[in-house]
Amino acid sequence: MPAVFDSDEFNHSLFFPRADASEPPPGAEDRFVELGAVRVHVRCHGAATSRCTLLLFHGNGEVVADYDDAAERFAELGVALAVAEYRGYGASSGVPTLRDLIGDARPIAGAVPGAPLIVMGRSLGSAAAHELFAHPVDGMAGVVLESAFYDLGGLVRRRGLTPPAAFTDDERATFEPAGKLRVGRLPLLVLHGARDTLIDPREAAAAHDTATAASDRRLVLVEGRGHNDLAGAETYWRALGAFIDRVIGGSPDGSRATPGPAS
Question: Going by fewer Cβ within 10 Å, which terminus of the chain is more open, N or C?
Fold first, then answer.
């Protein structure tokens, strides 16, 4: 019997892909990462004073073009934004599954130019970020989790399914965030809406508390925000900018930042 995460019932209820053939805006370029017979789309935005690249694995139902306007705000932090699609999303080919989303994370990160690299996973995209936190590619400097899931059984229940009485060793090793968070050593920022009703903020706290080997770990609960509106709060951008200052060791104007203590 296939693992619940490999079943059509689970993956069809998890993913909401939509096609998009939009042209990149000025200052951006589209790249494709070849993964066997599948091509995955990545949109890379430039930044005039880039001090790092932030690779974003976006949320469910989104495509890279949804972040075209946000690229300017990232550029103000001295960050060149790269946004990765999933199989079957945007201009990518293939059919999305959670196993492939996780398995594709390292090849995609390894193909994105502009080290040092910070990886950010939003909502569903946190599955890719968890994998890269535990198994980073060369040049990675930190990981950001935004509105991320932690409870594997909860992920299954939100699909309207009943999780098994016990997950297999393969399921835990491949899909469970806890084991990956436990071994990752890179700096970690956990951002979550204090009013998130889709993924309880306690999952964010659990992720932070589990990542005890991280060289720098911070939990920021954004007051008054839910699952999908964190980027509308200045608290979000301040926390992200401060994290980048600590991890990269500089600021957008080229001055040096003083790292703060890990929490």
Answer: N
